[in-house]
Specification:
The protein is an alpha+beta fold. 26% of the residues lie in helices and 44% in strands. The protein has 3 helices and 6 strands; from the N terminus they run ααββαββββ. 26% of the residues are buried.
């Protein structure tokens, strides 16, 4: 399974621990969709931070995705829900390391 497919699966299942395991120890997620929801964009650095961030977001129902579709080897489109705001989004796996772990992923409005 490709990294983008694993990312979508973990996000849909709200599996924060599994999501974090997809990233290298210094992996980065940059999410720019939140600007459309009157929130600050997210720049999350490191596997532990990714785990903690999404544990809180999923636990307090402040982030979810739906209607996800993998469109190619590195991108998926979905509806991102930020505390009630729905935004069409596209996630892109920018880089992976030699072990297949994600080192850089961005999420932008579509």
């Amino acid at each position: 399974m490709r990294p983008i497919e694993k990312y979508v699966e973990k996000m849909e299942n709200k599996d924060f621990a599994g999501l974090a395991e997809l990233f290298s120890s210094d992996g980065i997620i940059c999410d720019y969709c939140t600007n459309s929801a009157s929130q600050r964009e997210y720049h999350i650095y490191g596997k532990e931070a990714i785990n903690m961030f999404f544990r809180n977001k999923f636990g307090f129902r402040q982030y979810s995705i739906s209607e996800a579709e993998v469109v190619n080897d590195t991108q998926a489109e979905f509806i991102a829900n930020f505390g009630g705001y729905n935004i069409m989004a596209i996630a892109t796996v920018r880089n992976v390391d030699e072990n297949g772990l994600i080192t850089n992923l961005t999420v932008r409005p579509k």
